[in-house]
Structure to design on (356 residues):
C-alpha cells in the first residue's frame, strides 16, 4: 500500500511540513506520507517511525482520500467533565464556609480535607488538582484572616469628612501636615525579606538583650511637597512633642498649619493646645481607632520595611543613622501627595460610620 503519486509542488509542501511544523502529530503524518511517496513499504515506515502498521495504513488512506487536510490532528473533546457550573459554584460555596458551621471538628479547610468531605458525602469525585483549579477559577484563594476594630467615636462621620476635605482640597492659607509617633525603637534583630541564593537566606541571631532602652521618633509629612520630617528622642512626653511642633512651625513661618493626628493624650495636652492657638496651628484629630486615616501611617510602614526589617543594629546611634539615611533618600524622590483612598469604600455616602 502506497500513497498516491504526488505533484512536485505537493512533494515540496509535504517536505516543508515534515521539517518545520510545530505540531508533532502533523509532522509525523507528513513524514509517513513522504516516506510512502518514496515507495517505502508500510512495515519499514512503521519500524522507522516507531508506530504500528495500521497507523501507517490509516495515514496513507486518509491522505489519498482527503489530501493535506488529513495531516491535521483531529482533537477529540476528551473525557466528559464530572462537574457543571452549578456544581463548581457549590464547591466554592462549601470552601468559603467555616467547617465548624458544617459540623466538622476543625476551623479551617485544607485542600485535602475539603476533598475528603466532597468525596465522603458523594458530592463529587474529582482529583485534588481539579479541585484546586475549580477554586482558582471561582475566585476562592488561600488568605490570612484579618482583624477589624469598630470606632466608638460619636463624631466619626464629621471627623472623617474633615480629614478627607483637607486631603482633597488643601486650604490656600496654609499647609496640611500629618503628624504621628513611630516606635518604640528597640535594639533587636528584625525579621525581613531579601534576594538570596536558593535555600541560603540571611540569618540573624535569635537570643538578644535590650540593654540600651528604647527611643521614639516624631514624624511630620508635608502633603504639599511629600517631604517627611522627623526627630528621634529618648521619650515622647508633651514637652518633646511640643518641641517637634515648634520645629515644624519654624519651617513655614507665614502659613497656617493644619496638623492631622490621632487621639494620643500628649496631643491633647492643655499646654500643646494653648501653644497651637497662639501660633496659628489647627489640630485636626482623626476619629478614635481610625489611625488609618492618617496618611503618615503609610510612610511609617515603608520606613519599617526598608530601613529596619532584616537588620540587627547594636546601638541606637547606628539605628538612628539607618533611619536618617533612608528618610533622606526618600525625600530626594518625594513629590506632592494627592488622591487619598480614591475609590475606597470610605468614600461612599452609605459607608458604615461605626466600622473603622
Amino acid at each position: 500500500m502506497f500513497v498516491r503519486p504526488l505533484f512536485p509542488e505537493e512533494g515540496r509542501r509535504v517536505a516543508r511540513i515534515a521539517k518545520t511544523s510545530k505540531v508533532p502529530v502533523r509532522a509525523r503524518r507528513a513524514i509517513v506520507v513522504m516516506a510512502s511517496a518514496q515507495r517505502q513499504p508500510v512495515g519499514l515506515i512503521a519500524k522507522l517511525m516507531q508506530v504500528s502498521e495500521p497507523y501507517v495504513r490509516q495515514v496513507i488512506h486518509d491522505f489519498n482520500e482527503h489530501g493535506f487536510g488529513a495531516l491535521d490532528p483531529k482533537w477529540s473533546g476528551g473525557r466528559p467533565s464530572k462537574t457543571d457550573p452549578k456544581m463548581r459554584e457549590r464547591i466554592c460555596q462549601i470552601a468559603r464556609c467555616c467547617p465548624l458551621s458544617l459540623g466538622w471538628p476543625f476551623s479551617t479547610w485544607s485542600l485535602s480535607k475539603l476533598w475528603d468531605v466532597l468525596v465522603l458525602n458523594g458530592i463529587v469525585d474529582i482529583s485534588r488538582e481539579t479541585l484546586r483549579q475549580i477554586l482558582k477559577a471561582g475566585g476562592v484563594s488561600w488568605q490570612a484572616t484579618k482583624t477589624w476594630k469598630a470606632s466608638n467615636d460619636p463624631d466619626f462621620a464629621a471627623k472623617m469628612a474633615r480629614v478627607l476635605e483637607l486631603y482633597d482640597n488643601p486650604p490656600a492659607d496654609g499647609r496640611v501636615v500629618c503628624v504621628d509617633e513611630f516606635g518604640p525603637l528597640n535594639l533587636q534583630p528584625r525579621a525581613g525579606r531579601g534576594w538570596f541564593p536558593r535555600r541560603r537566606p540571611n540569618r540573624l541571631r535569635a537570643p538578644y538583650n535590650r540593654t540600651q532602652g528604647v527611643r521614639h521618633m516624631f514624624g511630620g509629612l508635608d502633603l504639599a511637597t511629600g517631604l517627611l520630617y522627623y526627630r528621634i528622642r529618648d521619650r515622647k512626653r508633651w514637652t518633646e512633642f511640643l518641641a517637634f511642633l515648634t520645629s515644624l512651625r519654624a519651617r513655614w513661618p507665614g502659613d497656617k498649619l493644619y496638623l492631622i493626628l490621632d487621639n494620643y493624650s500628649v496631643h491633647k495636652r492643655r499646654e500643646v493646645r494653648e501653644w497651637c492657638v497662639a501660633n496659628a496651628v489647627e489640630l485636626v484629630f482623626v476619629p478614635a481607632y481610625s489611625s488609618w486615616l492618617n496618611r503618615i501611617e503609610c510612610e511609617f510602614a515603608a520606613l519599617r520595611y526598608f530601613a529596619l526589617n532584616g537588620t540587627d543594629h547594636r546601638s541606637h546611634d547606628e539605628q538612628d543613622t539607618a533611619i536618617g539615611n533612608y528618610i533622606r533618600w526618600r525625600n530626594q524622590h518625594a513629590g506632592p501627595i494627592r488622591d487619598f483612598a480614591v475609590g475606597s469604600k470610605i468614600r461612599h455616602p452609605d459607608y458604615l460610620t461605626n466600622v473603622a
